[in-house]
Amino acid sequence: MKTRIAIIGYGNIGKAVEQAVLAAEDMQLVGIYHHNDNLDNIDADVAALCTPTREVPAFAEKLLKRGICTVDSFDIHGQIYDLRKQLTPIAKEHQAVSVIAAGWDPGSDSMVRALLTAIAPKGITYTNFGPGRSMGHTVAAKAIPGVKNALSMTIPLGTGIHRRMVYIELEDGADFATVEKLLLADDYFAHDETHVIPVPSVDALNNVAHGVHLVRDGVSGETHNQRFEFNMTINNPALTGQVLVAVARAAVRMKAEQRFGTFTMIEIPPIYMLPGDEETLIRSLV
Amino acid sequence: MKTRIAIIGYGNIGKAVEQAVLAAEDMQLVGIYHHNDNLDNIDADVAALCTPTREVPAFAEKLLKRGICTVDSFDIHGQIYDLRKQLTPIAKEHQAVSVIAAGWDPGSDSMVRALLTAIAPKGITYTNFGPGRSMGHTVAAKAIPGVKNALSMTIPLGTGIHRRMVYIELEDGADFATVEKLLLADDYFAHDETHVIPVPSVDALNNVAHGVHLVRDGVSGETHNQRFEFNMTINNPALTGQVLVAVARAAVRMKAEQRFGTFTMIEIPPIYMLPGDEETLIRSLV
Questions:
Q1: For domain A3-106+237-285, is the CATH number 2.40.110.10?
Q2: Distance between CA atoms of B6 and B31, rounded to whole angstroms?
Q3: From the CA of B240, how many Å to the nearest CA of chain A?
Q4: Which of A286, B12, B25, B84 makes an SS bond possible with B110, Cβ 3.0 to 4.6 Å?
Q5: In this predicted structure, what is the pLDDT of residue A150?
Q6: For chain A, which residues make up each domain, given as ranges?
Q7: In terms of Cα–Cα distance, which of A234, A59, A264 is closest to B221?
Q8: For chain A, what percent of residues have pLDDT higher than 70?
């Protein structure tokens, strides 16, 4: 029996979830809803929330109250535990499961960080992002007066330090030096090495590629110099969409096991994210 | 309350588990038993089985029947599912939890493979081992007539292809050319590029370093060229010992949740392997 999944929000991520659902033999797409659609008649096992991140909590509450599992890629790191706390009693009361913060960071990177911390408990993990677009910094750059369009690229410099390359398309008559000064003083940029570059078209630079270089040098028992590295270069929305489909599978399985509640990815057994029978998966992956 | 852990078997791995237990604030070492000791009076929450791999099933059965959880690093890939099947009913009947095949491969690498398969479902994963000693190949080399001592190193050539560098200390009067011919014809070596090198002392080459270079190039949804890489260079027994302590924690927690049975690492939520409170772990790792 296929998992019946609905997609809420149809931007980059919603479209990527659609592609991942269509490529998954165990999934059936029951509907795509724009984020201002009426959701009263949704009939699905699980809903993938692909709305802007700040709208996730309200949609999750609404659907969980109807017993529909939800998955999201809520990405405000400092508020993830609070969202889990907010949604847990609702999910439990309505016998549903919600998997939150399920993208690549937070998300699959979080699972790697948890694993590496377990197997080399003392040490430092550095997560280096990019090269790739930072949504938060791009939005902050676009908000500067005189900026018509902007793109803020994150460049990894190692040990979790990043350079910001900010490409700016000016509004007619705007002065570049003034815009640059305002941007460099903005709290989003004031603490990192930032370069502001005027360009004739920001659209011409559009690229959804992103990357991660995650490093841990730690201690297992009394043994130092245990070194681990996780790298990826990926299409950002495609990976996020695929992660959402993977955790949708996990949510439905945990509901079937009556393990109701709200979970981050580090609370999920990796095998729950995979289709197919247990024996084949264990024989091929372990 | 600390987890009370016993160590069965006191070779390289047993000693590494001891170090990892002593470094863990939530663990209490209740005893170390050589693998021919009488185990009738063991009183522990969980036992780390650090015996030769072929002795693991019998020890696991015996302890599970007394309701003691077990963890092991059973490493015969083709028999892991069978061991799980053998131990599952025993663990369930006696309300215990067994975590099997918990080292680094099988083990932590398995979790990475499962995660990467979930987030890029189509594609190929190559696990490249080494440089490091292969136990199986070393034992096979030692069994060749005329060999006094041997060391078989695994050298990664990429795409899962490995070179074998076999260092041989000859018995007095043995003929190197004859030993080399027998070794190259052995089924352990016949299928890989193998170099046999005579040395005056194999002990002088002793080094427990090992490594992994795991690569997946896969497809998320309809998007190809999603590239992932997991590398590590590690002290082999130290990492295995630490993994065993991490899954001991998970076993005890799953028992407390009455999720009795036998599990491989891909069936365990990563957070269960970590000490400390949920909120701190989620806030720092997700």
A1: no
A2: 5
A3: 8
A4: A286
A5: 97
A6: 3-106+237-285, 122-220
A7: A234
A8: 100
